[in-house]
Amino acid sequence: MSLRFFKAHGLGNDYIALELEEVPFALRTQAIRLICDRHLGVGSDGILARTGSGVADFGVRIFNPDGSEAEKSGNGLRIFARYLLGRGEVEVGRAFTVETLGGVVRMVVLAQHEDSADVEVEMGRASFRSSAVGLVGPDREVQGELLELEGGDRVAIDTVSIGNPHCVVFQDEVDVSDLRRRAPQISTHPWFERGTNVQFARAAGRSVVEAWVWERGAGETHASGSSACAVAAAAVRRGLVSSREVEVRMPGGTLFVRVGEDWELVLRGPVEGVYEGVLLPEMLERLSGA
What we know:
Elements: E1 3-10, E2 13-19, H1 29-36, E3 47-51, E4 58-63, E5 69-70, H2 74-86, E6 96-100, E7 103-112, E8 117-125, H3 130-133, E9 143-148, E10 154-161, E11 165-170, H4 176-187, E12 197-203, E13 208-215, E14 219-221, H5 225-238, E15 245-250, E16 253-259, E17 264-279, H6 281-288
Parallel strand pairs: 2-3, 4-6, 11-12, 13-15
Antiparallel strand pairs: 1-2, 1-17, 3-4, 4-5, 6-7, 7-8, 8-17, 9-10, 10-11, 12-13, 13-14, 15-16, 16-17
């Protein structure tokens, strides 16, 4: 008994892809945590479990390393495209659709290089409504609203939903230590009913935004596709950038986001395959008991 998997990363944000129907154990919280553990398991920022779909060409469930399930992931979806490309199920230049918990997305592998692939994902329409991100209180658009943290600390937030919740904090200068202190408090703040992804960002040019990311269920990450979309949309809405073709620079590298007039978002960026592997019987036995 064994289980094959594929691993890739998008700008350092890594995922494992596998076939859900081939998994011989329940993908419960403890099993997911064990697989994603970088010492005891394979190690990753999440799991992409391929499923069937009645409304799209493919389906995928996206699990965070803490065992929770994500609605959508820009990096995860691009990695899933690379997984399907390696299996010969999609072709370069031919669009296909994928059903996620956050809705159906359209994708296309733009190019395949010797060491990477460029993938474009139509991430859906950004919403700035508080109800879309599960923020308590009356339904409203949130821009620069003050959120109180521990000890009376306050941060001005913008909320954006891309099918999953985001909270963007714009600053003139971003201190990573500040991110690490404040972001966990924001991500699990009781005002966010489902928790939220957090981005600390600053405009760095007419079409450039720098961003640091704290992902719900994962913590600090090198990059995030849906976070890049949220930051780009919020920056355009605030007038911090003058172009709707936004370059989002994160510690792991750069992603490109096109923000439509109707707030439809298109994400583009690279994916690099890492390896294919097999979970061995002793590991599967541990996972079955997790």
